[in-house]
Design goal:
This protein is an alpha/beta fold and 409 residues long. It folds into two domains: 244 residues, Response regulator (Rossmann fold, 3-Layer(aba) Sandwich); 130 residues, Response regulator (Rossmann fold). The chain is 37% helix and 17% strand. The strands form four sheets. It has a seven-stranded mixed sheet, with helices on both faces. α2 crosses α10, α5 packs parallel to α6 and α10 packs across α11. The longest helix is centred in the N-terminal third of the chain and has 20 residues.
Length: 409
């Protein structure tokens, strides 16, 4: 990627995951982004670029868990968006104006996500990237709808996350993930007997599970155990694992988050039970869990549209930049967020929008524009969007091999 002199202030957030937590949410510490100043010796031409031909600055906000047990998700979303913003600013911005990004921590808590939204509104946010998780995205969408602010969630996958016409998403919906997972397992003959462990108290997990079960019958898969846990009881999975083992499950489907998945894999190892474990985007982050023996995840599969080992130029450049900036390999959440920023850019350009428009006028311009754009992103080539907010893209799978995600294709 060609290097350009940066001429604007941008905000970046980087948070380390706290010690492995049994519950959702985590630390009560607050995260926010702090702007980094442009070089003092900017030239007159650079100053003009900073101001923008259209005047003003684009202000994008991002919300996600930057602390606590799900920090690997939110931190990746903010960091992935920052990589895209830096690239766009270096290339001249959007409609002649530079982009500022600010991230806010919601600690995986819906009310704190709403508070983060209000903080970003006070800052002057024009477009929201997020929230990262489904429950938080659902909560905040009630307010973006009221304000008529354009919202694109990189990873809020619950069906109702896009129930309002101002909200779009980059990831697959829960129904799509459940159906696609059953199809992938059946079509690739990974197993005939399948056990399921899911969180019945979580809209993300239960939504995927329901659609997986519905499609499993079409794929000739026998569900030999279907065991739930809840947010109040998610540290001991011995009963659920034993039922899967007794039923002869060759594969255990885990439509859950990575913290709980790491406990399940550890407990399965203690029991001497070694099925194939298969999950969705919620498992992305399992290699970052503190004190987890990542060798236990060897062979675990995830349905995800992003593989960091892909050899196309876009992925190689993104991964190299992300590693340089944040000293880790990006996950799907970072890729989803990167694509979200470029989708916003394409929609703004398609609509002929400018940063001096009101939040509501900008939203009205972007809604139809989103259905008219096509982008080749990290998570799919030729990605398009429906008016319903759903993306059109192809599912892929990765497998954990030697402590890294590699394409399963």
């Amino acid at each position: 990627m060609k290097k350009w002199k940066r001429v604007t202030s941008v905000a970046a957030v980087s948070a380390l995951a706290a010690a492995m937590l049994a519950g959702c949410g985590g630390s009560s510490s607050e995260g926010s982004a702090a702007a980094s100043s442009a070089p003092a010796a900017a030239t007159e031409a650079a100053s003009a670029a900073e101001t923008g031909a259209a005047g003003g600055t684009w202000k994008f906000g991002a919300i996600g868990p930057l602390t606590g047990g799900a920090a690997a998700y939110g931190t990746a979303v903010v960091n992935g968006a920052q990589v895209a913003v830096d690239e766009i600013n270096a290339a001249g911005g959007i409609a002649g104006a530079q982009v500022e990004l600010q991230g806010q921590d919601d600690e995986l808590d819906a009310q704190k996500s709403v508070n983060a939204y209000n903080t970003l509104k006070d800052w002057g946010m024009q477009v929201l990237i997020g929230p990262t998780t489904s429950a938080c995205s659902l909560a905040v969408s009630e307010y973006t709808k009221e304000d008529n602010m354009f919202q694109i969630t990189p990873s809020g996958s619950a069906a109702d996350c896009v129930k309002y016409d101002n909200v779009f998403r980059v990831c697959f919906s829960d129904p799509a993930q459940g159906t696609a997972s059953a199809q992938y397992i059946g079509q690739n003959k990974l197993a005939t007997k399948v056990g399921i462990i899911y969180d019945s108290s979580d809209v993300y997990s239960s939504g995927i599970e329901q659609n997986f079960v519905a499609e499993a019958a079409n794929q000739g898969l026998e569900i030999v155990s279907e065991e739930a846990f809840t947010a109040d009881n998610k540290t001991d999975f011995s009963v659920q694992l034993q039922k899967a083992k007794d039923g002869g499950a060759e594969l255990v489907f885990l439509p859950i988050y990575y913290t709980e998945a790491s406990l399940i894999l550890s407990q399965a190892n203690t029991m001497g039970y070694k099925p194939v474990f298969f999950g969705c985007d919620g498992l992305d982050g399992i290699l970052t869990v503190e004190n987890f023996d990542t060798s236990l995840a060897e062979g675990t599969m995830l349905l995800t549209p992003f593989a960091a080992d892909a050899t196309d130029d876009l992925t190689k450049t993104f991964v190299a930049t992300y590693q340089k900036n944040y000293s880790e390999i990006p996950n799907q959440f970072a890729a989803d967020s990167y694509d979200a920023v470029y989708a916003i850019k394409a929609a703004i350009e398609k609509a002929g929008a400018t940063p001096d428009q009101s939040v509501s006028d900008l939203c009205e311009a972007l809604k139809p524009a989103m259905t008219e754009i096509t982008i080749d992103g990290l998570t799919s080539d030729g990605m398009t969007w429906q008016a319903s907010g759903e993306p059109n893209k192809e599912p892929k799978a990765v497998v954990i091999k030697d402590g890294a995600y590699v394409s399963a294709q």
